[in-house]
């Protein structure tokens, strides 16, 4: 799979070139006994593609990835298959790369202290991707399992902390399967940038109403966020967020939307099919 910098560049350039995150069909989610089946089709430029993925919440306890799947990349005109890619590797790379595109557009420039919630594949991918767009000078890991958190912290040259370390963080990456908020949004620094990538379900959230209330909220697609992003859906229901004030990532990347430097910024990602397609196409073209 292509590296973080290449994936970040491909996604940024696609948005600048006019890709519309709202134009694609919605994700199909089918509940099954042990999780979910996902179908994620998209088309852009010369390519069409579809990811068939599964989400099995009990897999990590078995030593398996929570998300499984394959990606089929097709020629956009003939719809002939071009490549089959590892859906797990693709998901890990593109999710963190989208977060990095958002952070690069939203976060204050210069050295940053990074707080990461989670110790799984997405947490690792986010540390690597965010280091591409900002000079990270300190990494703090917060995890449910102290042993795993310690090993991960050592792996990335960081240290283990607690949720209260949000007080000192410039960047906060929420990469967990948590169903309830991970930290108190009142503790966020005014210039902090938060990314939350943990779920695509309206009844699940990683950040609280206070985080949303205080922040400029940026999403991949406003319609998709109001349907799938629990962090947004629940804050809207509580009166902490006005849907009319949600900002699309494309508008931020293109310089069409201004973001206040005096309030925290929250990027809530649910993961969309266009992201898989753009990164899969970049991977395919690199191998040509």
UniProtKB/TrEMBL annotation:
InterPro entries: NAD(P)-bd_dom_sf, ODC_Mu_crystall, ODC_N. This is Ornithine cyclodeaminase family protein.
